[in-house]
Amino acid sequence: GAVVSQHPSRVICKSGTSVKIECRSLDFQATTMFWYRQFPKKSLMLMATSNEGSKATYEQGVEKDKFLINHASLTLSTLTVTSAHPEDSSFYICAPISLGSYNEQFFGPGTRLTVL
Amino acid sequence: QKEVEQNSGPLSVPEGAIASLNCTYSDRGSQSFFWYRQYSGKSPELIMSIYSNGDKEDGRFTAQLNKASQYVSLLIRDSQPSDSATYLCAVGDSSASKIIFGSGTRLSIRP
């Protein structure tokens, strides 16, 4: 499978601060990046889809001004949680895919965000 | 609303037996189907993908797809304690723009 890294793996922050999560595809070019979050004992929820060089498409109910996504290169995408609040505490996971992969997604290791 | 349904479990299977996990989906136009394994506190790991009707085997895992019945399953032979995890069924939507995940089945292999 593909090699995907995420940084940081775990972050604890105070309410009101912003947190940036990086996702890198290490051995392939990611034309599309999916960002998910997962609350405890719940399934994955797609937050947004981004294509390299263009604006992200957000799922219904996900605030685009709160969750800023940048996909400036084929190997790096970032998700910034702005003005984080305790209800944003979750497991955030990226999944890059490349053209022709037929939707086969390989997930990053995830970032555990805890907002105090 | 496109949906992927799984029994949440827990499904308890004795070591060495066959574990059978099932999934149904609502989008008739779906063309890609996946099974992911997720250990507690970790991100999902792709274990099987299947695109055409029938069976696909990979080691101890067999994925089965029946598009007419909108049904996909995963069989795990010779179950091991290390197979204990949550198994997520995922289906590519007909627009091929994203995949939709089921809520997962928790599998427990008892020694």
Can you characterise this structure?
The complex is a heterodimer of chains A (116) and B (111). A six-stranded mixed sheet of chain A has the order 2-10-9-4-5-6, with no helix packed on it. Chain A is 0% helix and 47% strand. By secondary structure, chain A is mainly β. The mean pLDDT of chain B is 94. Chain B is globular and about 45 Å long. In chain B, 0% of the residues lie in helices and 53% in strands. The chains are: A mainly beta (116), B mainly beta (111). The A-B interface holds A 1, 34, 42-44, 46, 49, 91, 93, 102-110, 112 and B 32, 34, 36, 41-46, 49, 51, 88, 90, 92, 96-99, 101-104.
Write a brief caption for the model.
The complex is a heterodimer of chains A (116) and B (111). With 116 residues, chain A is an all-beta fold. Chain A has strands at 4-7, 10-13, 19-25, 32-38, 45-51, 57-58, 67-70, 76-81, 90-97, 111-115.
SSE inventory with pairings:
The complex is a heterodimer of chains A (about 120) and B (about 110).
Chain A: E1 4-7, E2 10-13, E3 19-25, E4 32-38, E5 45-51, E6 57-58, E7 67-70, E8 76-81, E9 90-97, E10 111-115
Chain B: E1 4-5, E2 11-14, E3 19-25, E4 33-38, E5 45-50, E6 54-58, E7 61-66, E8 71-76, E9 85-92, E10 99-101, E11 105-110
Parallel strand pairs in B: 2-11
Antiparallel strand pairs in B: 1-3, 3-8, 4-5, 4-9, 6-7, 7-8, 9-10, 9-11
The structure class of chain A reads mainly beta
Give the helix tally of chain B. 0
* Overall pLDDT score of chain B: 94
Q: Structural class per helix/strand content of chain B?
A: mainly beta
What would you report as the Rg of chain B, rounded to the nearest angstrom?
13 Å
Features:
heterodimer, A: 116 residues, mainly beta, 6-stranded mixed sheet, 4-stranded antiparallel sheet, 10 strands, 0% helix, globular, B: 111 residues, 5-stranded antiparallel sheet, 11 strands, 53% strand
